[in-house]
User: Which sequence fits this backbone?
């Protein structure tokens, strides 16, 4: 009896730690029907859709490169990364410019999303550990945790893992 | 020595003062009488008259050069003025007694020093003291910035005081540094620091009267600073007052961890400057020695050599690099003999100086490594041998000189050298320093030499320069690049180009011009002449010539040709390989040359020039030339090529670039050509340049390195293919043509080729390679751009050539990882990103598939169609 309680506490502590770590402001955006969140500190800016120059022989999910005020940055289509149909340009389509670090290097990249929603403050109590979906669900590894905002579910993305790992692997 | 009263000296001085006014650089007689007067004055032995000898010597040394003579005269008149002042100040000083003994309180400036420098310093000291006070008060409030500023100020002051030989001030600064580091802030500390500040103010006043401070450093330190947490260090510092021995490298190590970083950064930057300056100096030494060997000795060159070693010694002493000091010092002593014509600067002596520069370079490199790694400086093995050899050479014909005491253990030597080097010391003054250093510390009699003419010997045009952080330059250049793009976007915007107003169009024209000029300036900011690298090569040739026993002469031209700084650095390595090759293998031994009717002295010409938009560096030897038959033979043996059929001369020549292509010495006449050539080619190609070989058997070989002006901008041809546009570097484009039907041949369905005036080139459709849609399907309507990469030409089928333009190269962004067939990106005039094709990679692709085909043919299997891009994608 007492052991069971202790165990339960440990699990809870771990979950609480994670939640406390992840709590904070998130930029939320929409891909297809789902809502995703990016740590606000990694978002540099949001720009409207612009001409993207296709890069031949690049990874599939890379749509190409854009000119961000004189700097050339790659743009990734997150829908492709998550196995959905390519992003179709609409009025709401935007590029979120993120800056993140992989292996000590700071990378700047644009990600193409259907629509930007809002900046959400997600409290520790609203965060749950990522669901265990089994080996088959490769997308689950990109998720740091699941936030609940009202009745909505926000997948909190580990953007470094989403973009970093595969881009260099595909090189 | 004539013992004469001060009266005589004073009378002489008066005469001198009028003589120096009358003397004009162009008036030989006046100068002659001036020198005579000066010497007479020097001979009086009056203590204040010592500068006279120096001034006389300086004028004598530059008699032949009018420009410098004028400088020497100016210096002499200053010296006379200071002598007059000195005499009027202490007319009663007994003539025979050394100054120090006569008046212990008098301030003795180091022999290079003049009052003006001191006054300047004192003026700066006043404002510095205000800053210090501000810092002290700020520190009490516990703020970090005033504390840092205070320490910086103090450190600078210490250094300057050290330079000027203001021992007391220096010692106090040093002790205060220690004190501040050892103690936290409190009201007590502030009080003490303020006391120090007040002392400094008083000391400044004393110094202004050319007196030492009434309260000596040791006393002050003991009274104010000693009860700090490290009394023994304060004593140490006070003791340092006797031989001034600033020690920035040791101080931070002993300092508490909190302040260590900042001090360290300062020390590191000191070292950085020292290292780069010394390296430059050593390069000058190499060059000067080379001149001496070819054109003989002139006093100017010897002086120049001397100065370099002296400066190195001085700064190294300041930085506590004992071994460097030792070597530089001994070399300097030897050179001093040469200057005094006691030793001939030739043969073995030159070799020794060369060895010394090599030794110094190596030591400096160790220092650099140690600094970067943050470790202590390792002791150097084998140095004693070299020092000993130099000593022997120096002693060899030296009779009157006392044996050299180890200068490294002699703080006087270091101190003297130190103060001398930091000021722009004159040759004569430094010679005094050198002899001082060699004798014991009592030898201070010669310590007030005259200030000398500016040290720039000869008609050197010294431009005013400032040191700028490279990062700033880079960001400026980058921004200019962006400006160029924005400018062309504005000019080409349809709304604007439709504007019919003449005024607007004029303005736009002006804008375009200014932007272009700005771009030029920006590019030139990073440009440096190749002279530095060429100097290194001169040295290399000399060494190689010695080693191989061949007589080789290096002829350089176009040293002032400028290249991007980073390229100049990168070019050095390939050049070393190529020069080595030319010496070792290109040039024949003298006897062989004579038999062939050539001059026994082999000549290597190293030249740099602009050609089109590129910089060309040419290495030409007049040796045996490349033996193509031998190259082909070797290449076939090694299986590099099946046969030489269909290979052009250039293609055969470029076989020597194949990795490891080296033929045994005796078997062929091209022995070893190709060692390191692989490296050369790689390095040059990494700089987006190419190597062209021209060779005539028996006449010599010429390597041409064709390099872009800068790494940041290339000339590109903008081509369209389907809906996309790409940039092909103009450097790799041979020609572009619209093919006729009869020129096109095809093996199977995909292996297309183009028959270009008898040369069959593989034809690659860019749209197929990149999977583009909407490209022209019929080659006769499209355009073939013939490009050359990895020594192979291929035809690249594109829709059309849009324009030719200069583009600023941008990286594609690391997020993409490595991209195939694309070497970078550039912003096009419409603001879109254009990709720059990697022609080498694309050409290599077809090249490989050709080999693949050839193998298939060799195996006599049916020549299947091998889609080129699949092959490449796999490779």
Assistant:
């Amino acid at each position: 009896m007492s052991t069971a309680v202790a165990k339960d506490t440990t699990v809870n502590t771990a979950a609480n730690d994670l939640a406390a770590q992840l709590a904070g402001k998130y930029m939320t955006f929409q891909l297809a029907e789902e809502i995703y969140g990016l740590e606000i500190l990694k978002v540099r800016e949001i720009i409207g859709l612009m001409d993207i120059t296709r890069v031949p022989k690049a990874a599939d999910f890379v749509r190409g490169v854009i000119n961000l005020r004189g700097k050339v940055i790659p743009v990734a289509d997150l829908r492709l990364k998550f196995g959905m149909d390519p992003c179709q340009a609409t009025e709401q389509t935007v590029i979120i410019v993120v800056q993140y670090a992989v292996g000590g290097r700071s990378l700047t990249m644009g990600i193409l999303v259907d629509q930007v929603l809002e900046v959400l403050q997600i409290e520790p109590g609203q965060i749950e550990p990522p669901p265990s979906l089994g080996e088959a669900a490769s997308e689950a590894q990109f998720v740091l945790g699941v936030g609940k905002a009202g009745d909505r579910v926000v997948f909190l993305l580990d953007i470094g893992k989403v973009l970093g790992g595969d881009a260099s692997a595909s090189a | 020595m004539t013992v004469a009263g001060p009266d005589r000296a004073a009378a002489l001085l008066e005469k001198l003062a009028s003589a120096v006014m009358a003397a004009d650089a162009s008036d030989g007689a006046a100068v002659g009488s001036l020198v005579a007067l000066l010497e007479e004055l020097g001979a009086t032995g009056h203590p204040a008259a010592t500068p006279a000898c120096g001034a006389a010597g300086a004028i004598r040394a530059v008699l032949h050069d009018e420009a410098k003579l004028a400088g020497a005269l100016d210096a002499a008149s200053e010296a006379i003025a200071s002598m007059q002042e000195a005499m009027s100040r202490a007319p009663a000083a007994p003539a025979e007694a050394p100054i120090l003994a006569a008046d212990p309180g008098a301030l003795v400036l180091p022999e290079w020093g003049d009052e003006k420098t001191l006054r300047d310093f004192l003026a700066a000291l006043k404002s510095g003291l205000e800053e210090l006070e501000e810092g002290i008060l700020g520190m009490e409030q516990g703020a970090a910035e005033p504390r840092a500023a205070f320490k910086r100020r103090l450190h600078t002051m210490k250094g300057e005081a050290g330079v000027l030989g203001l021992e007391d001030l220096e010692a106090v600064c040093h002790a205060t540094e220690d004190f501040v580091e050892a103690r936290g802030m409190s009201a007590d500390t502030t009080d003490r620091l303020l006391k120090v500040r007040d002392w400094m103010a008083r000391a400044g006043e004393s110094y202004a009267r050319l007196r030492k401070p009434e309260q000596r450093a040791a006393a002050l330190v003991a009274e104010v600073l000693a009860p700090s947490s490290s009394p023994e260090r304060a004593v140490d510092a006070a003791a340092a007052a006797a031989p001034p021995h600033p020690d920035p490298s040791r101080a931070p190590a002993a300092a508490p961890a909190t302040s260590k970083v900042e001090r360290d950064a300062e020390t590191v930057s000191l070292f950085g400057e020292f290292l780069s300056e010394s390296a430059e100096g050593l390069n000058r030494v190499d060059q000067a020695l080379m001149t001496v060997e070819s054109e003989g000795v002139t006093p100017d060159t010897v002086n120049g050599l001397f100065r370099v070693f002296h400066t190195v010694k001085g700064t190294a002493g300041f930085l506590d690099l004992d071994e460097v000091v030792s070597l530089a010092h001994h070399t300097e002593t030897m050179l001093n003999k040469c200057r005094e014509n006691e030793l001939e600067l030739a043969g073995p002596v030159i070799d020794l100086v060369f060895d010394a520069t090599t030794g110094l370079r190596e030591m400096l490199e160790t220092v650099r490594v140690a600094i970067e790694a943050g470790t202590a400086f390792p002791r150097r093995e084998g140095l004693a041998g070299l020092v000993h050899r130099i000593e022997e050479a120096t002693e060899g014909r030296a009779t009157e000189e006392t044996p050299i005491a180890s200068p490294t253990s002699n703080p006087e030597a270091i101190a003297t050298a130190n103060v001398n080097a930091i000021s722009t010391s004159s040759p004569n003054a430094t010679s005094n320093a050198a002899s001082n250093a060699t004798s014991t510390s009592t030898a201070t009699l010669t310590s007030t030499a005259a200030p000398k003419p500016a040290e720039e010997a000869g008609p050197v045009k010294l431009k005013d320069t400032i040191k700028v952080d490279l990062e700033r330059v880079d960001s400026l250049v980058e921004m200019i690049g962006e400006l160029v793009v924005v400018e062309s976007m504005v000019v080409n915007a349809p709304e604007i180009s439709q504007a019919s107003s003449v005024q607007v169009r004029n303005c736009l024209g002006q804008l375009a011009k200014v932007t272009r000029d700005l771009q030029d300036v920006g590019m030139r900011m990073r440009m440096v002449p190749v002279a530095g690298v060429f100097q290194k090569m001169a040295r290399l040739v000399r060494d190689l010539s010695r080693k191989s026993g061949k007589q080789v002469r290096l002829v350089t031209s176009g040293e002032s040709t400028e290249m991007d700084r980073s390229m100049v650095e990168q070019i050095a390595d390939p050049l070393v390989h190529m020069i080595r090759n030319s010496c070792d293998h290109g040039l024949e031994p003298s006897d062989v040359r004579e038999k062939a009717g050539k001059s026994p002295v082999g000549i290597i010409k190293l030249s740099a020039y602009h050609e089109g938009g590129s910089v060309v560096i040419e290495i030409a030897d007049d040796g045996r030339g490349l033996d193509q038959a031998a190259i082909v033979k070797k290449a076939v043996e090694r299986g590099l090529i099946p046969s030489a059929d269909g290979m052009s001369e250039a293609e055969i020549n470029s076989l020597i670039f194949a990795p490891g292509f080296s033929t045994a010495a005796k078997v062929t006449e091209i022995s070893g050509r190709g060692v390191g050539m692989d490296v050369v080619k790689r390095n040059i190609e990494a700089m987006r340049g190419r190597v062209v070989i021209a060779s005539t058997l028996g006449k010599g070989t010429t390597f041409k390195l064709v390099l872009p002006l800068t790494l940041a901008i290339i000339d590109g041809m903008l081509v369209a293919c389907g809906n996309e546009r790409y940039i092909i570097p103009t450097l790799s484009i041979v020609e572009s043509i619209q093919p006729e039907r009869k020129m096109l041949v095809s093996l199977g369905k995909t292996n297309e080729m183009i028959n270009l005036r008898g040369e069959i080139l593989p034809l690659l459709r860019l749209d197929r390679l990149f999977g583009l849609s909407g490209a022209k399907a019929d080659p006769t309507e499209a355009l073939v751009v013939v490009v050359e990469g990895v020594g192979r030409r291929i035809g690249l089928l594109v829709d059309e050539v849009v324009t030719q333009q200069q583009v600023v190269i941008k990286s594609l962004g690391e997020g993409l990882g490595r991209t195939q067939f694309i070497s970078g990106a550039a912003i096009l005039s419409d603001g879109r990103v254009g990709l720059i094709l990697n022609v080498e990679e694309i050409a290599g692709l077809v090249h490989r598939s050709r080999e693949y085909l050839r193998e298939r043919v060799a195996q006599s299997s049916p020549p299947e169609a091998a889609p080129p891009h699949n092959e490449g994608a796999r490779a």
Remarks:
- Chain A has a mean pLDDT of 80.
- Helices of chain A lie at 2-22, 78-81, 159-169.
- The longest helix of chain A spans residues 2-22.
- The radius of gyration of chain A is 17 Å.
